[in-house]
Amino acid sequence: MHNLNFTRLIGLVFLCSRLILRAKATTDATHLPECTFSASNAPCNDSSGGNALTSTTYCIDTSVKIYKSTAAGGTTTGSCELLQNGTIKIFECSNENTCIDSSTYADEKKILAYKKSGTTWTQNAIDYYYDDGTTKVLIKCATASGLPGACDKVTTTSTTDEYYLLTSSNSNLNSNALIKISSSDPKTKKLQILLDTI
User: Mean pLDDT for the chain?
Assistant: First the structure.
């Protein structure tokens, strides 16, 4: 009887350890991975400075500068390039170590928003980001400016339409706009600008 209970206990300990390891391996991103500049013709190093990043990702250093680290592979040596263009960047992260340019806003990915001021970047410096491309997505960042935290796509499950007033001070838009999220087709997440100027 005691041997059977002991065997069960060992089995439970093993199962719990597997679950903990799996949870750690799929940690959600709340900020860009930290890195250090190595050389322009090699991947950026991790935050300890000792190991090259193994995935192609954007990363941020202690001076709050963002780099694009391209992994080495085949005949390429990889690269570590300072991000200089743009004032607002939206990233999609599949895990805490891999963040790329936003494109699909897939539900399973975490969305991070950064705004540039001078040569440095601040996370969650705006409340809303409106992507007026083919995706027509509204992103809301609820975390306070400068603090880590993922942003969310704004959707509705309500039976009535929802409206958001975006301005040049709370969003990436240069002028005021009223954004409508339709309750009749919430799965497509299509948005519509009703007024360019309010």
Answer: 81
Domain count of the chain? 1
Answer yes or no: is 173 within a domain: no
What are 18's two structure tokens? 């597997």
Burial category of 91 from C-beta neighbours within 10 Å (exposed 0-12, middle 13-18, buried 19 and up): buried
| Assigned domain for 19 exists | no
Q: Residue 66 belongs to what domain range?
A: 28-153
Helix H or strand E encompassing 59: strand 57-60
pTM: 0.78
In a domain, 171, yes or no: no
Task: Give me the residues of the chain with pLDDT under 70, please.
Answer: 1-27, 185-198
